[in-house]
Amino acid sequence: MTRAFEGPEPGGPDDVEWPGEAPGHSRPDHEYRPWWEYGAPDPGVLPPKQPVGWNANGSNGASGEPVFVDAYEFVKTEVEVPPPLWGTRECAIIPQGGLAILAGRPGAGKTTFVLDLACHLAAGLPFPNSDGNGRAPAPWPIDKPLRVALIENEGPQEMFRLKLADKLERFPHDIRERGGYLSIQAWRWGAFNFADADAHRRAQSELESDGIDLVIGDPLTMLGPRGVGSPEDTRVFVQMLYPLGLAQSRAFLFLHHFRERAERNEDELARVSGAWGGHLDTLLTLQAGAQKEKARLSFPKLRWASEKPPNAVILGRVYNTASFEALSEEGDHVALEAPIVTWLEAQRAAGRGAKGWFKARDVAHGISEGDMETRKALEGAPHLFSFVTGARAKELGARANAKLWGLKEWADDEPEETAGPEQQSIDADIPF
Q1: Mean pLDDT score of the chain
Q2: Residues 235 and 253 in one domain
Q3: Are residues 138 and 219 in the same domain?
């Protein structure tokens, strides 16, 4: 049996609309009541957002305590700051009690990434692993095995069960043996909603009794936000999370998406759909690479980083463990040298191009990397690569002003018109 939910605004009768869906949308028949009916903070009053355990006089803000304290007394009060769930004290990626979003377009690998992250967090293992090439950044630490709760509100339950079963089988550690805990919301599959009072009450009770450190929810838009993500919509949703431990004992990580259309020169924070930026402690973005087995993880916002935020990391998919590993930092052009050498040798052996010589943009296309990054890799490794131009380029079938790249060892056998990148380093001066 189903019935339509066509509820009024908060404060009216028991039933309310399911957020994000048109009035009249049918849902399984169960009681749906506004979350604030169970004594959570009034939706019009934003609870204070405080660091975990903070109070200038060491109390928990009991009745009768002063609202303001002398500045000199305030700065003398030291409170032990708990280590982040993921990262370091100088660069907290997911702080304890923090609010984080992982954003990306469909197909970027967010679900695979977050399952891998959840397993590492619950096992207390640094993440992401390095591929061992010596160029990847060190994995960020996870202080101890964590207790993680995951809410999957997208897709059939059986398909997710199979995906999780495959991940746990491939994951080289037993989470329970390492002292961690990973739980899955199965009470209302695909329909769990923090705006539902019954769901909110039960979540509050179980998250507390299970000692959950981090709640992961996918996707954000199906977990309770109303409307289109206006400042008011996001403020009310974030309010719902305070009684569940946000800003105190429990962190939240939600999977979200970019807006369909991005403006020119728009930064990654602005591309996230909805007015979430001001609420977030952390924004991570995951974007698919030109090669399907690669992805780009970036850190547009880390509120609690006292040092320069890390560069974006290029990740590689590891299919036999259903995971990702770090390959290099973005801008590390040395990481492209080996793929370029391999590709050029293969093209020459197959008789393609101008006896194996190619324009920089053709090399970029061949290795599925960006033009600028590939050009910098070619120009930055004169011990490996060289180019020909002028009469020699014409002999190879190209225009005289073309710039064709190949291996340096090939250039050593060419006529004197062959040049090295140290003699000509700006492609823009020679159109191709």
Answers
A1: 81
A2: yes
A3: yes
Q: How far is 43 from 157, CA to CA, in rounded Å? A: 32
- Residue 249, class by beta-carbon neighbours within 10 Å (0-12 exposed, 13-18 middle, 19+ buried)? middle
CATH for 374: 1.10.10
Query: Do the Cβ atoms of 206 and 250 come closer than 8 Å?
Result: no
User: Given CA atoms 266, 272, 273, 275 in this order, what sign does their dihedral have?
Assistant: negative
Query: Residue 359's domain spans which residues?
Result: 335-429
User: 255-283 in b/e burial notation, b at 16+ Cβ within 10 A?
Assistant: bbbbeeeeeeeeebeebbebebeebbbbb
- Give SS3 for 374: helix
Mean pLDDT of 116-127: 98
**Nearest residue to 276 (alpha-carbon basis) of 160, 103, 41:** 103
Element (H, E) at 113: helix 110-123
Q: Can you give the C-alpha Rg of the chain in angstroms? A: 27
Percent of the chain with pLDDT over 90: 47
Quick check: 305 pLDDT over 50? yes
pLDDT in tens, 19-64: 434 333 334 444 545 544 444 444 444 444 444 444 434 445 555 7
Spatial neighbors of 125 by CB under 8 A, at least 6 apart, are 142, 173, 178
